[in-house]
Amino acid sequence: SPLSGVNPHINTSLQNHHFPYLFSHGTNISNGVDLPPKDQFDEGWQDNSHEVNGDEMLRGNHSGSESHDNQRVLNNGSEPSVGRTIHLDHAASTLYSIPLLNQLLNQNFSHNLYLNPHSMSKQAQHTEQLIQNVRHEILRFFSTDSSKYSVIFTMNASHACKIFAESFDWRDYPKWRYMFQCHNSVLGMRETVSERGMEEVSHFHTLEDLLEEEEFSVDSADSRKGMVVLYPAECNSTGRIYPSQQWWETLKRPHTLVDGKRRDNIIVFLDAAKYVATSHLDLSPEYSPDFIALSFYKLFGYPTGLGALLVRNNKKHLLKKTYFSGGTVLASVADSRFHKFRKEIWEQFEDGTLPFLDIIALGHFLKRTLRTFHYRDMNHVHEHTFALARFVYNRLTSLRHYNGSPICEVYGWEKDSSAEHGSIVNFNLKKPNGEFIGYSEVEQLSSLHNMTLRTGCFCNAGACQANLHMDSSRVIENFESGHVCWDGHDIINGHPTGSVRVSFGYCSTLDEAKYFTSFIEENYLEKSAPSTTKPILRSIYRYKLDRICLYPIKSCLAAQVPNSWQLSQNGLLHDREWVLIDDKGKVLTLKHNLDMGTIQPQIVGDVMKISSPQAPGGRELEIRLDHYPKDVVTFPIFGAETRGLLYNSDVNEWFSVVLGFPTYLIRKDPQTERESHANNSTINYSNEGQYLCISRASMEDIRQRLIEKYGSDAVPSTTDWLIERFRPNFVIDDSTGGSSAFVEDHFSKIQIGSQEFRVQGPCKRCSMINVDTSKLSRENEPLKTLFTYRKQKGRVVFGVLLMRVTQGENVLKIGDAVRCEVSEDSRR
Asked: What stretch of H or E contains 807?
């Protein structure tokens, strides 16, 4: 068992200097030493405060300074966080070896001239010959040759699927059967062939289901109709492997019908994109697939943007090409419809110039990767990656909360055999009461622990529906309620909308698997029942208004506020009244666009002055507050369409230069009300509420916790830097120091001066609070620490949202008295 000692199938010869962008929290697995305690993982919480060295890299005993040199070249001082990654998303893309890439660049590309193979020069024709050699290498890699298959280079596996769907001559094959648990690339083919007039398109769940259909009955006339069967060799969602050779032979072996005729009219299309990344696709059997789609970056990490459609030569006549381009024809004329395609199938379908340098690079990695990493063959890679996945599966399924309930629900692990399962573990975490934990939380927290994994439905709608017991009506209902792919709506009405996927590759190690399972255990396993003791609370708490913070342009820097500021019906006057969008209408945020941290607005009289060190010529931009643009635009914000007023090109050019891409400034239309999606208050462009209030005591609590973890030298001496991170409107302070941290969680009403506010609930936090605008960098804190003790319903919360209920006088002053009432429920 991989739980005891080192599994014999695990490759212990991996070289760490090949992956200097990875970071180790453990030892080389060949030493058999467990991971260090969790507190040692936290060393150097600021990404740029901890230099990664060879001894800390993931794969053990390096061989000198090569690791250091590669680390410096890769990071170039600009993204030190890259050097601290544990990659657990190999099903999406695996990792490339730095020495192999350097070898390609320094020993091949730097000494040879490769040119467009459509030219007739000596160098161009040499390039063409190398491309043909790579085709042969690909076929040999899959245990076949050019007498049986042809290789059509594509951009990726999805492109291969598209070519097949658009080009397949279905007239003799009017029936289309695809596996329910297939990638969206295959589902997309369904739409194409349906539009082209395919008679009958339907899905199947298992081979047995397919065989029971009428078409496979030997005494049925319908069995003479040709059929296309499409399925994945390995499910990219769950890792379930389908027995290839058994299925191929069952589907493709000719059968004698009742009238003595032979049935040989089943076309098999295999989506091999996931399977070939960690398993050997053997195409030597007589009854092998007719068409195969794959992507090469999933095998070796490099080159990207290169895939293939493998075509059995005896079926290539079924692909019909209409469009032609450079390199695909023998002859063509401009004044009539005459052209003649080239002879070879790949010559007809490879439009334009191939990415010839990428293809040459592919040949380099094909020949060297397995040998470099001491693998016998791809079967050895499969055993290695399955052993790691099995380790994670065994560990996760053995974890139980204090009440005996399982910590997770695993999907698709039906048979514990490397013949029927690959390198993936797909699961959702659960609380002791059986409620699901949202996958977005797991992804966010794992990212703070320097891990990459995948969440959602993984572009496999069928697997997602099957795993989560969702029928199509619920999927559509979720969509109509606002949930789309890649958003944060991970749980709707108590049901998960996706899951968590961990996947391994040829360069994965047992240390990585151990680190991940330790992360799950330490952050999600509840070993004892939560305390039912309630804090003793007073009915009234008194503070003073310590600071007023104003953010005129959403996600940009705060404007300095004098001693007082006016309130409006939507919040502080001019707070989040402007927003920046890109040329696709997407709202820009600091979380994804660090340069927004250089944009400094300042309101002076009736003008908003905006500056940035990245501004063209250092020019300051001025926006008159009494000017409202005339052009009205509609754009989405938080899943709902809203109207705004678009500024002219001169203003937008200023922001475009600062951010480095087309950017547009929008002002809220005063004639359009926008309601918070969290409550009924009217707001400008803020996320949830009119006002956000935090206390100095709560900020000091998180500051002290950071000092305990990292030492006082690593943490600023005051809480002012946390104000910049949490971006509140009001900071309240108890000058006596008698108030407890987070007592504001229990407030129901807050009165500041003469203004009364109703507490709307806690403010949910995301990784934006980890952005350091002074350095324009992303860090792991304070969100990482907040995850350990400030979660409510799966989300980190800090501060409270307020809605103003008082009418009349609407000015607040710094130093105003603050009176906070605790709700009756909190005091019981």
From this structure: none
